[in-house]
Automatic annotation (TrEMBL):
UniProt KW keywords: Cytoplasm, Nucleus, Signalosome
PANTHER family: COP9 SIGNALOSOME COMPLEX SUBUNIT 7 (PTHR15350:SF5), COP9 SIGNALOSOME COMPLEX SUBUNIT 7/DENDRITIC CELL PROTEIN GA17 (PTHR15350)
Protein name: COP9 signalosome complex subunit 7a
Compartments, record wording: Cytoplasm; Nucleus
Protein source organism: Hydra vulgaris
Coiled-coil residue spans: none
Pfam families documented for this protein: CSN7_HB_subdom (PF22061), CSN7a_helixI (PF18392), PCI (PF01399)
Length: 257
């Protein structure tokens, strides 16, 4: 299953490659059309590499195409809720882009918790219809954006796997700090385990020594008891021999008529 996920991620990355090549020589309106395509096309869910290209960054300072740059940022880092609250900042989205943004928003929710309630999802992507919500989750599962199952009884999504989204540059230091703390925690855990192992080995050696001492004492007691048994047997035999000797010395008295 892990191999399948890795293969799928590689396939999704390959879908972006032609657009990355085109973006190197594209500017203005051509780059705007390219951004529209990558934000609409199914299977492309990572946009960070495209965002870092110098000619794409230039769009942020171009009033004519600034909304396209914001659109690309929206699909890289944002959610449907952030789009709904600032629609005037972006170009008008078509139905495919809206669906894709909702799928990415679902991925963001799924990355925060193993159990995501239907109510949370409805709030995030502005839904009221449960049937449409479940259809969207099923679409996300078939697209390998998430893996999990629908729990209709508890009205929640149970997440087993979710794709990672692009990381905002300002959050990199925070993530590095978290990973650094995690590494330190792992190191401390290893030290604790080594100490526990050493203590366990020492206890084992102590127990073995105590066992040897106990076994030696038991052997000594056994040997002592065996010696006592021999002495008792020898004493009894000596008493029997003395008694037999006394009987032989005493002659029976004859009776006269």
């Amino acid at each position: 299953q892990l191999k399948y996920k890795m293969t799928d991620e590689t396939h999704k990355g390959s879908l972006m490659q032609p657009f990355l090549l085109l973006a190197k020589s594209s500017h203005g309106a051509a780059l705007s059309r390219l951004i529209q395509q990558v934000t609409e096309l199914p299977g492309i869910y990572k946009f960070g590499e495209l965002l870092q290209m110098p000619n794409v960054v230039e769009l942020s300072n171009n009033e004519l195409f600034k909304k396209d740059w914001k659109l690309l940022n929206l699909f890289a880092f944002g959610t449907f809720m952030s789009y709904s609250a600032n629609k005037e900042c972006f170009p008008e989205l078509n139905s495919n882009q809206i669906t894709k943004l909702k799928l990415l928003s679902l991925a963001t929710l799924a990355s925060k918790s193993k159990y995501v309630s239907y109510d949370e999802i409805k709030t995030e992507i502005s839904l009221t219809n449960t049937r449409y919500l479940e259809d969207l989750i099923i679409e996300a599962i078939y697209a390998n954006i998430i893996q999990g199952k629908l729990n209709q009884q508890d009205q929640r999504l149970e997440v087993d796997f979710v794709i990672g989204r692009d990381i905002q540059p300002e959050k990199v230091d925070y993530i590095v700090t978290i990973l650094d703390n995690w590494c330190k925690g792992c190191s401390n855990a290893i030290v604790s385990l080594e100490k526990l192992t050493e203590h366990a080995n020492n206890m084992k050696d102590t127990k073995l020594q105590q066992r040897k001492v106990t076994e030696k004492e038991i052997d000594e007691v056994k040997n002592f008891l065996k010696t006592q048994d021999h002495l008792v047997d020898a004493n009894l035999q000596s008493q029997k021999d003395k008694a037999r000797g006394l009987r032989n010395l005493v002659k029976p008295t004859s009776r006269t008529k």
